[in-house]
Amino acid sequence: MRIFTAVLPPADVLAHLDDFLDVRRHAAALRWSRVEQLHLTLAFAAEVDEWRLDEVVERTAAAAARRTAFDLRVAGGGAFPHADAGKVLWAGLEVDAAGAGELEALARGARSALSTAGAAVDGGRFRPHVTVARSGRPVQLSDWVRLLDAYAGPAWRVDEVAVVASHLGEGARRRPRHEVLATVPLGAGPARTP
């Protein structure tokens, strides 16, 4: 089972970003992320045994309990691997120095929770972003990056993280379907299932 731990922005934050991008989407042949699937990935594992899920949630809850809430805002943007020949267009995140430390520690804790529960964690260095579009081949994304550089959405308080299953090909247009398995609060508190 594909699992990721993520910060899920609230609906009003997602709607603000979606409105900003909506009038411009027709101008590019990109696969745009569905608004309800926009998130900040903290850790990802492509293969987790289903019997390990309870341990993943427990360890994620323990890691989140050691962190404190912080404010975050979607602002700016970029492309992977770079804007001149990108395959991923992303929106950036803005956080103050104290929040940046909490976010980095939260990502380390999420990766450790998956790893300690026996999952092979994918990805390299944590680079906080929200993927807004993809391309199957490298394309020029400089104009989109400049557009996103002018964007600053509303701030929100990050006070929980979600453990999410990604079911490939089960969503609209054969895209992944995301299923929130549990949310866990930052600071002390029990895990919550939807």
Automatic annotation (TrEMBL):
Kindly state the positions of the motif HXTX 1 in this protein. 39-42
Pfam families xref list: 2_5_RNA_ligase2
Q: Which reaction does it catalyse?
A: a 3'-end 2',3'-cyclophospho-ribonucleotide-RNA + H2O = a 3'-end 2'-phospho-ribonucleotide-RNA + H(+)
Q: Where is this motif: HXTX 2?
A: 129-132
What keywords is this UniProt entry annotated with? Hydrolase
Catalytic residues of the enzyme: 39 (proton donor), 129 (proton acceptor)
- Per the UniProt entry, the signal peptide is none
Question: For this protein, what is the EC number?
Answer: 3.1.4.58
Gene3D superfamilies associated with the record: Cyclic phosphodiesterase (3.90.1140.10)
| Superkingdom assignment | Bacteria
Function description: Hydrolyzes RNA 2',3'-cyclic phosphodiester to an RNA 2'-phosphomonoester.
**HAMAP family, from UniProt?**
RNA_CPDase
Q: Which family does it belong to?
A: Belongs to the 2H phosphoesterase superfamily. ThpR family.
Could you identify this protein by its name?
Answer: RNA 2',3'-cyclic phosphodiesterase
* Provenance organism: Nocardioides imazamoxiresistens
Classification lineage: Bacteria, Bacillati, Actinomycetota, Actinomycetes, Propionibacteriales
